Every structure is written in structure tokens, then in C-alpha cells.
## 1
Amino acid sequence: MSQMRIIILLAVVLMSIALSALLGPHIISPFGATDTDREILFSVRMPRVLIAFLMGMALGASGAVLQGILRNPLADPYILGISSGASLTAALAIIGGISFLGSFTIPVFAFTGALATGGIVGMMGWKRGGLWPERLLLAGVGLSFLFSALLMLMMSISTDEGLRRATLWIFGDLSMSEWSRIPYGLAFVVVGIALSATRAKALNALILGDEFAHSLGFAPRRERSILFVSVGLLTAASVSLGGMIGFIGLLMPHIMRFFIGSDSRLLIPASALGGGALLCIADLISRSALPPMELPAGVITAIIGAPYFLYLLRRKDVLSV
Amino acid sequence: MRTRIIAIVLALSCCRIAFAADFADPPKRIVSLSPSTTEILFAMGLGDRIAGVTNYCDYPQEAKQKPRIGGMSNPSLEAVLSLRPDIVVMTTDGNPKEFEERLVSLRINTYVFEARTIRDLPRGIRKLASALGVEERGEKLAKSIEKGIRKAAPPAAGVAARAAKEKVLFIVWPEPLLVAGPGTAIDDAVRLLGAENIASRASTAYPKYSIEEVIRQAPEVIIIGKGSGMDMVAVSKGLLNRLSSVPAIKNSNVCYVGDGLYRLGPRVAQGIEELAQCLK
Amino acid sequence: MSSASKPAILDLEDVCFSYEKSRQFIHDLAFSVGEGSFIGLLGANGSGKSTILKLASGILKPSSGKIALWGKNLFDLNGRDRAKLISYLPQTLDISVPFTVQELVGMGLYPYDIPPAMSVADALDIAGLTDKAGARLTDLSGGERRRTFIAMTLVQGAGLLLLDEPLANLDIRYQIELIRLLKKLREAKALSVVMALHDINVALQFDKVMLIRDGNIIGSGRPDEVLSRDMLLRTFDVNVEIKRSGDSVYVSFENNF
């Protein structure tokens, strides 16, 4: 039965990619494509669809990992302020005109910001030898307010071009997707997902609790740190690819736990694929709903995601903490 | 970025007389709540009577020396009151109606400038001038603008070009792509010049525009407006690369212009003139 | 007494531990567990039973002293090797993720590359959970949850089980069921069990009882030797007595109410 579901998931993924490449403000028929259609397909839609998919994968997988290592069904990099921290350092790199790592500069800076923020949130959430969910969430919310305010402040006091570009990181935007973003996006997403997938057993054990994890032969702190690095890589990828887009990281693991099961070995890749498909569809809606205008993809994910989230809250078996 | 866009949107919107007081004496202390009215007041030579302007009023240079009263959508009531204005000049869309009501309830004279299109501008200026008791100066400015518009866009030009309208896209900001849409002075000017703004069927004034729609609509001329003090050639490079198949770029019909048309004010004629050069 | 003749599988010597720097909680703790033992740690809430079990399993590190597992230093073993010898089940099982019974029991295989003797199916059978294999943890009763985790430790194959208050929140039927299951397993698999508890009636079922107070072992021995009025007063600060009538043994609360 679970094999059947994996096949269904893969079919949905392929269909989402194909649909978002062929649909849009205008439908492109693969058979009767004009030169303009081909141009639009290859230089506008394909990079955009692939970047949306990579970004959605990063969001879905990072949510699955973070919910596990924090033992908190409400965790995701967005809520815990990790995305804001990554955005802030990414913005600093842009403003500072730093580019010594080429196209990898921004994601590398975003990665350090993600790790640093995660560290601060972790320290604030740590009390009497354990992580306290509500402390973590409040610390994350507080930090993301602080980081957004810092970004706003920098914008208000400067008219510099780089800074204006940096504000893109506040509002998620996929319209700037270009082929040149694919290499670093792919590298960070693949390494991030691979790293978490190799530690998937440890993640399962951590979900049961540190004492269980220890009893099953894992070193909880070490495993949590390794898994957190993968969250940092994935958050850096998503922020660098398209800024801050919420709800996918929070919801996709919940959806997949129902659809495919809770075992992290399956849940991480499934959440990644599901997140990719969802963001492709959300972006498709955002650019097709009111042509020739575009809406931010984050608005669509919130409109899809928030009601589902509220529905989940009513199901006691999902959030029976 | 966002604030600049909002500033532009607000600056371009204009006016209706809601309340025109009779003045025994011409008002001496004027507070202007939008960059376009600030420019008009300066152009009428009333610079020394301006007591306060918004944070976005950056033209002419002297405007930057004036006391600031906050943004257009969120001016500070306290800052306005502390300037003891004889009259507060505001615009219909740019400033909140509630703010005007507050001022009226505090017995402060207000004047709402209501021209919204290039055609209405001279009339709007004349009305404003008469409300401020400077009819002659208003008449002079209105005349010069009318003359400028006629020169840049002679009525015949529109008729002549009607046969084959040139498709134009006016880019306000390249990343993300924001363009001039319906209801803007730019859209107005493009039509006056007998060309067609491909973004005029969007539903907001400065829409975030779909890149693939640009490719599909194939504009013949692309005009890039000035950003506040930025090198627009550098900023737009990435976008123009992606649009390389569009006729405008193939035929090097890309044109960089100033910000004359961002505000429905004295520099509109100059803006139309620049636009006309691009469409030649 | 019965375990003394067999070699010790767990040996604690002069173990000290403190949660806060200022106050030492456990001082010079020493005891050993022989093969096939069935030991109950009896004490009031907060007396240190959990701390002792966590020290013995290596979750908490002692500030001084020695802990040996099958003659080897506990902290010299790597995690996976340790997991094959000893298994600790925490008191609270507050897991909100809906793992299935089968998935959870299968986690017992994590320390192994080559699966050990007992399969997941066997463990489910022994724990009476075969027909619940596909059920989600979040849909199980308290007793079924406990049995699921016992089955996990069976698959894990550890010879020593440290169980922290496994009977808490279980009704009498499940308490009896669980004790019976553990006794059966001990016979069949030479399993040793150390269990923290606070119910004197349950303590009567064990081969050996250790009375814990303020992190110290204040008495140790067969239930009939150690559960005297005097010792129970020192353990719990109340006057209770073990009464016998015929075959049944029970605790009398006397006129404490």
C-alpha cells in the first residue's frame, strides 16, 4: 500500500511540474508551440518552475527535520526566525557588495545566518537540560520580529540600490528566477536532504525523546547538531532562491505523515517532493490568477496553508502534545 | 523600494476641491502633503511660503531643506499642527481622507488638489492658485505647461500615429518588474503621443508585471524611468537580458528617461518631451 | 541473595552525581545487578529512583565513581554496543508523532547492521500486539503503548532492562499484564529487569527490592525481609504494614486516613 502511495506522490509531483510549465497566463501547447512560446517556456517558465520546485523541496524537508529535532509539530524555519536570520545575513552580503564566492556568496551568508539564529533560538529555548517548545517558539517569534525590524531600519536609512534589492528577501518573490540560480540551489538542497536522510534513523529516535535516542545508541546532542546543519543548508537554499515563503515547511510534514507515514526515512523525501509540488502550484496560481499582473507566491501558500493548518489544529491525533 | 513606489503612486494621484476657504489675506504658511503639490507650489514661486513638506518631497533641491511632516499616507498630525499652517494642501488619493477630517475639525484650512490626468493638470493648478490668492502665477504656470504639452504632443501627432500604434512598456523598477499601468500620468502621456501602453489593461497603477507577458506582448519600445539616484542601466541589465527576444531590445529601442512623469506637476511637459524623443 | 551467586551484569561503585553544582544529589551509590534479576526500586516521588536509572543507563554522567556493564566501563562502550546490552524506558511517553506500532518496534533494530535473533513479528507476538501492528501510537491505550515499547526493547535485544515507573497511569489489569509479561520474558530469555515504582503492593512481586530515599539506598533485600513497618516509615514517612493472611500478602494503610 505504501508503494502505491509513493507512486501516487511521484505522479502528483511530475504533473505539478508539467502543469506549471505548460499553464500560466497563457497555455502553451507542447505540440503547437510558436517561437515565442518556446522562448517563454525555456527562458522564463522552466527556470522558474525548477527554482520553485527546489525551494519547495527545501522548505518541506527542513520542516520535517526541524519538527523532529525540536519534538514540536509547530516548528518550521519561518516560525522559529531561522529564515529571518538567513535573510538578514543574505541582505548584508548584498548591501556590502560581497561576492568573493560568486553565485554561492548569498547562500553561504544565508547559511551562516541560519546557523547563528538557530543557535540563539536553541540557547533561549534551553532550560534545565531540555528544549522547551513554548520558549523556542517565543524566542523564534521575537527574533524574527527583531530581524525584520533591522531590515526595515536599514531600508529606511539608506537609498542604496543593493539595499532595495535586499528587501526582496522580506517578500518572497520567484519572478526573478534564472538558470544561474539553479547550481547553488541544487547543491544546497541536495546536500541538505542527503545529510538529513543519512541521519533519518537518529531523527526517528530523537522524535521519541533524548532518553529513547540514547537508549537506542545515538548521541542526542551530536545527532541534533548534524541534523540542524542540514536545516541550515535547506533554509539558506530556500531564502536565497526566493526569499521568505511560509506555511510549506509547517504543513507539508503533517500532510505527508498522513499520506505516507511518520518514519523520517520516507517522511523527509516525501515532504521535500510534496513541498516542491505545492510551491510549483502556488506559484502557478500566483502568476496566472490576475494576468498580466503577478501576486507574491507567499500569499497563495498562506491562503492554501492557513485553512489547512486550522483544520489540523482540530484533529487531536496530530497535535496531541 | 516599496516606499518609493508608494511615493510615486501617491504623488501621481490628484485632486478635487473639497473645501476652499475665502481668504482675507493670502495664506502665508502652507504645508504640502504630497511631492507633486510641493513641486507646483515651488514652480509658482511660493517656496518661501512653504512651511512643511513630506519626507518624499525631494524636488526642487530647496524642498529638502523644509521641515518634514512624515509620509503621505501617514503624516504626523502633531508635526503639521506645530508648523501653525494657514492652509494644508493635500491630494485625493495620496492622503487619507480621515486626516483631512481631523484637520478640518481642528479648524485648519485644507485644500484638496484633484487633477488626475495630464489634461486636468492646468485647470487644477489654476484652481489651487486662486485658492491661495496667486491667480496670476497659477495662470502663468498653467499656460507654460499647456504650451509644453502642445509642443511635445501636438494633437496631430496622435492622429497620425493612430494607424499603427507603437507598443510601449514603461518600466518603473526592473527587479521585481514593476511597470506604469492605467491611471498614471505615464499611461496618459503614452496615449497623448499616439502610442499604446501594453500595461494599460492591468488593474493597478503600478502592477508587478509578468515577464512572460512582456515577451508575448512584444513591446517595440521599452522606457526605463529613473530610480532615486541609481544607475538604472546597471540595475536593468539582468532584466533586459531576459527580454532579449523582444523587438524593443532587438532593435535597441530602449530608452532611459527622468522622473518627470512620476508626479503630475510642473515637470510633466518635460517628461512628455523626453518620452516623445524615445518614440521618435 | 538469589542473584549474588551469579556474576554481576551491572555494577555501580561510589557513584556521585549532582544536578546543581552546589548540592550533591547522589553520594557514593553502590549496587550490582546479577543476571536474571528482577529488582524493584521503591521510593517516594522525587526520592531519586529515576536519577539512579538514568545514571545506570549512561544518560546522566556521574561526577565520580565507576559503572561497569558486563565488566566493561559503561562510558568506554560506543553507543550502538551499549544499546545492545542495556535499554532504558523513560516514564513519560509523550510522543505526538503518529508512528505505527510496527515502525516503533522496528526502531529496536537501529543499533544493528545485521538483524538479531528476535524479529519484529516475534516481538509483536510476545507483547500481544500482532493485530495492532499497523495502528498508530496516538490511537493506542496506555497499556498498549507500554507494551509497544517493551516489544521495542525486546527487538533491541538488550539483556538488561531499566524501566522507569512503567506502571504509572496503568489500571490494575494492565499492571498485572505487564508484570506477568516481564516475568515470562525473564524466564525465557535470561532477561534482567530493574524497575522504578512507588506502589508497595507491586514491590511484593519482585525478587529484590531496594528502598530509595534522598538518593540513597536505605535498605535492600527480599520483599519479605525489607518491607517492614520501620523501613516503610523511613522510606515514605507513613505508618503502613505488610499483612499476610493465607497465601495473600497486602499492605495495610491502618488508620492513616
## 2
Amino acid sequence: MIKLPDLTLSNWKENLTKKNFTALEAVQAYFEEIKNKDKNIGAYLSLHENEALKAAEETDLKIAKGEDIHPLAGAPLAIKDNLLVKDLPATASSKILEDYVASYDATVIKKLRAAGSVFLGKTNLDEFAMGSSTENSAFKLTRNPHDTKKVPGGTSGGSAAAIAANMALGALGTDTGGSIRQPASFCGVVGLKPTYGAVSRFGAIATASSLDQIGPLTKSVEDAALLFNTIRGQDGYDSTSTDPGYDENNLLNPKLENVKKLRVGLPKEYFEDKLDEDVTKAIEKAIEKIKSLGIKFKEVSLPHTKYALASYYIINFAEISSNLARLDGIRYSRRKDALKKAKNLEDFYREERGQGFGSESKRRIILGTYVLSSGYYDAYYAKAQKVRTLLKNDFTNAFKEVDVILTPTSPSTAFDIGSKTSDPLEMYLSDIFTVTANLAGVPAISIPAKSDTKMPVGVQLIGKHFREADILGLGHYYEQLEKKS
Amino acid sequence: MASSITKKELEHLAKLARLNLSEREEKKLLEDLREILAYFEKLGELDTSEVAPMNGGTELQNIFREDEERKDTLRGQGRDNFPETKDGSLSVPEVFKRHD
């Protein structure tokens, strides 16, 4: 009997090579768990059992032959449905992509496939990764495994819920303004948004290209490091991807003596805002725990924080309206009949796009078109890009004084399903602590903090560009302290 | 900044964005847009006359590679997803009106 809660990506290889179980048995156990639980959670949009079992057997065969295997060989992963896996659907939770089947692997998938990883299925998200609760999916509702009346967060809500409910050992998500970290926080798992450019975006269905990054959602910080280290790297198919020369050993095996030297900053602007009492308490305790390692804390200032959401959403809307223009109802659709009936192309586009996009997508496309249109461009889009420079400079200045910045991941714990759907602005405001890392391009991780209530709280660690090793290292030792207590 | 967006402006935007909107959608969108655009007005408080815009997520400089033939392009695979093809090309309804 395989105990799924005990498995991690980090102990996975040892379990296989010590013959505690085979990859096939473990993958079968995950499908069993999914069949039992996912009716109530709704993490997956599609399952791919045959392909997964076949991939698992390949790893078992390698082990039987005595070949060395990658640490993630045979590891059962969940993939957000805006990432392309060849020959599998990739809907981005949108009706306009309902029939789309990916014709190639995203670079991150290619890397994981080379490692021998197994893809259990594709997970639910807010349509085209727009939202904060996964309620904007055109296909289904995902529920928080800690309380099924509450949202899992978004947009990678399916991936976060799958990890929290032991329906996958690791998962990939995408993070445009917090879409990995906020659901990780709400579901009590670890979520890493890498530095912009650290991971190739090729094969990720673009939301806002200057903000998007692919990253891991996992059960531990160590697992996140392992998955990140496997998917990162420069890629000829994404000209913004780069390899600054990461030290693998620093990423995977952080040393306590180095972590103790890190200086941690608390940005005062992030603690002035209205915070849930549960969040405040959990974060204060987390700070005390980290201080017990002998780490020095310091108050820092990110003075333009109150302008972050406005800048973020203008840029997000503008890039979305441009990226979603390719979805014309023809190129990624198989609706032959509709195409034949159409009188002219413009009417066809308007009808298909009007029917195919959900209300949040339409809202953002219209707003993006507005902020980019002549007469408003300077007042909105150009202004937002300048404010983005100021926000980035805030981080550059703060990082002269400290190595890592600590904040709550979200001002609240998971909210009730349906409580924010009618008020888009209210939903946008819940992203206050996560959007800045995307605007500045810096890495950030959400790690479960010990909370007094049933609903999890996440602590966010933000690092310098390409210094994932700092936040993973500090995160790992903090996580060890939480486990002991 | 003009945040009192009108119904006529919304209809124009919907045309530019190639979206059909129902009456009900238009009504809700107008309310949402006014509220969201009003929120954006706070950026006006900042003097950014001396600030350069940040155009992307990276500060990498553009470089050019040698213009050489590559065998590993994915050209053609997108065609597998075309709903209707004619001689290997995408077939669509008429784009221009015929004037006979």
C-alpha cells in the first residue's frame, strides 16, 4: 500500500530504486485517488491514463535494466491546461479552445519528458489565466480541498488543489500576477514564480507576455527546487529566456551557514494594508521562527506599492487584448459548420469571439483595446509602463539593503465560492501582494505558514533577479522549523 | 483621464476587438469599465515626466543570430488544427465584398 501523503519529489527516486514500489504502481495509485476525490474537488479538466501508465512503465523498465534515472523519472505530475503537451487538449479553460489539441510540446514539457516524468492530466484554471479564484473557467468549478465551500485561488487553482489533495506529486502552473503563489497560499502548498526569463515560455498559451512565467507547485520547498531546476534554461524558442549561470548545488542543497547570512526586509507598505487577523498572526509567527535561525530583519520601503495594481492591470489588459487577437475562431478551432455558414469573415470573428470568450476575457480585451487606443495610450498604457519602472526601482533600492523581502502572499485566506464574482475590481484587489514581483521580474515563492485556523496562510519570499537560491534556501530552512514545531 | 466611457465608445471598442456583445453584456461592462478606469486614475498623482517606460520583463538587449536554415522548425504543424483546408492552405469565408 503506497501512502501518497508521505511521497515527495525529493524522496521519489529513492523509493523507486529501493523498490518500495514501481512507478506504475504509484501512478495507478494516483489515478485511484483522483477517481475517489476529484468529483468533489474538480482539479482536473482531462486525464490521460493510458499515456501516463505507458510513461511510468518506461521508467520501471530502465530501473529493471539497471540504468540510472533522473530524479523526476516516472514522477506523476499535473499540468495546467494552458501549457501544451503534444497530442493532448490545451483549452486554457476557454470554450474558444474547446477542440484544440496541442501539436507540439512546450519547452518545459519537453524537458520533463526527457527526464521521464509522467503527465497525469491537465488542470483547471481561470480562462486564459485571468482571475484569482479559478471561477472564471468555462468548464468547471474547482474547490479548495481544505474546505470545499471555498475557492482554491487562481489562476492555477487546479494544480494547487491537485497537490493539496494528493492527486499529483508535483504540478506546473503559470504566474502572471500571482497565479502560482496565491493558489499555493490558499491550498497550503508551495508555489514558485521564477525570475522572468529563467524558464522558457514557449508552449505556454500567452496571457501577458511581459509578466508570464511558468513555475512549480509542490508539497515542499525542496520539491519546488528540484522541479524548477529541471524546467529552467535558455531556449531558442523564447528570446526572453536566459541562463545566468545558476549554481545547481546552491539551488538543490542550500547550506544553513549561507542562509543565516541573508538579510530579510519587511516592506512597511505591505503591512499597512488591511490584513485578515489570521494572516497577520501567522506571518508574525513565521517571522519569529526565521529570526530564531539568527537571521537579521530590517524594515524596508517600496514607496510606489499603492500604484502597483493600477499599473499591473493596465499592462495586463493591454497585453491580453493583443495576445488573444490570434483566437479568431478559426485557427485553433474545428468548427467546420460555423465556418461554412458564415457570410463574411468579420461577422464570423465577432460571432465566434463573442460566443467563445467568457465575461472576464471580454472585459479585459475591451479594456486592453481601450488603454491602447489612440488618445488614451499615453494616459494609460505609457503611464503604466513608466510606473512599472518606478516599481522596479523600488525593488532595486530595497535589495541594496536586504537579500530577501518577506510579505504575506495574500491579504486573506481562501474566500467563499461566489463571494467576489460579481465585482471584478474587488477580485483584482486581492492580488495586491503578488503583482509587484511580476512587474519587477523578480522571483517569489509562497510557503505555507503555521496558521491557527483551518484555512492555510502563505508567507511570500521575494528574491533578487536570478537569486532563486536565496528564497529556496531560506524557505527550506523555515519549512524545516515549521515541521519540527 | 476620461473615465466616463460611453455606450457608443464601447460599441466602437467591441468592433475593433471583433467581439459581439449582447445588450446585457454591454450594460454590465459599462458599469465595470467606469469603475475600473476610475481606479486607474490614481496613476495621475505620480509625476513620471522624467521616467523611462519599462517595455518588457527583461533588460536583455536584442541580438541577431546568423541567418541560416533550420531544420527543426515547427512549420506546418499548425495546419493540423485548421478546420478547413484547400490545397494545403486555410480556407475561410469571403474577406472582401465582390463588386460585379
